[in-house]
Amino acid sequence: QVQLVESGGGLVQAGGSLRLSCVASGRTFSTYAMAWFRQAAGKEREFVAAISRSGASLNYADSVKGRFTISRDNAKNTVYLQMNSLKPDDTAVYYCAASRGGGNYSLPPVSQYEYWGQGTQVTVSS
């Protein structure tokens, strides 16, 4: 089992940037695909971005393509989400998630993320 702790959220003006981090416990971080999801108030949780075990495969929601970048450092047990050109619609609680599915070059289905962090709030003001 893996435990996930997110950080880096906060309040930013539209057009600004934030970088979220998620640190995982344990010594098997490289065996998990990692992803970011978000949930805005009154809405369902939605997929944002995913990265395969080795970092070779990436996937993004259409709403964040070209603005957000997911990356990972397996030596530091950490996954990042660099968010640029932020919009008020990006306001949400952002969650880090881990999956034992997929491989070095493939990603698991979005429904197969098993482990979740507690979330970090991102608020973008207009």
- What would you call the shape? globular
Count of DSSP strands: 11
String of helices and strands: EEEEEEEEEEE
Largest sheet: 7 strands, mixed
Decide which structural class fits the backbone: mainly beta
Keywords:
single chain, 126 residues, mainly beta, seven-stranded mixed sheet, four-stranded antiparallel sheet
What this model shows, in words?
The protein has no helices and eleven strands. The chain has 126 residues and is mostly beta strands. The strands form two sheets. Strands 2, 4, 5, 6, 9, 10 and 11 form a seven-stranded mixed sheet that branches. Strand 7 (68-73) and strand 8 form a beta hairpin. The model has no long low-confidence stretch (mean pLDDT 97).
Question: What is the gist of this entry?
Answer:
The chain has about 130 residues and is mainly β. The protein is built from no helices and eleven strands.
